[in-house]
Amino acid sequence: MSKSSISEPTRGFKWIAAILVAFYSLVTIMPLLWIVATGFKSSADSIAYPPKITFQPSLEGYVNLFTTQTRQTKEFMAANPPKNWYEEIVHSKGMVIAGPSRFGERFLNSTIIGFGSTFLSVLLGTMAAYAFSRFRVPLKDDLLFFILSTRMMPPIAVAIPIFLMFRAVGLSDTHAGMILLYTAVNLSLSVWLLKGFIDEIPREYEEAALIDGYTRFQAFYKVVLPQAATGIASTAIFCLIFAWNEYAFAVLLTSGTAQTAPPFIPTIIGVAGQDWPAMAAGATIFLLPVMVFTILLRRHLLRGITFGAVRK
Amino acid sequence: MANGIIERAAKLTPAPFARKIKGLSDRAIAWIFITPTIIILLAVNIFPLIWTIWLSFTNFKANRPNADVKWIGLRNYERILTDSDIWLTMQATAHFLIWTLVLQVLIGFALAWLINQKFKGNDLWTTIIVLPMMLSPAVVGNFWTFLYQPQIGLFNYVFAFLTQSDPTSFSMIGDVALAPWSIVIVDTWMWTPFVMLICLAGLRSIPDYIYEAAECDRASKWRQFWTITVPMVLPFLMLAVLFRGIENFKMFDLVVQLTGGGPGSTTELTSINLKREAFEKWRTGYSSAYAIILFVTVFGLASIYVKALNKVKER
Question: Domains of chain A (ranges plus CATH)?
Answer without folding.
Answer: 104-267 (1.10.3720.10)
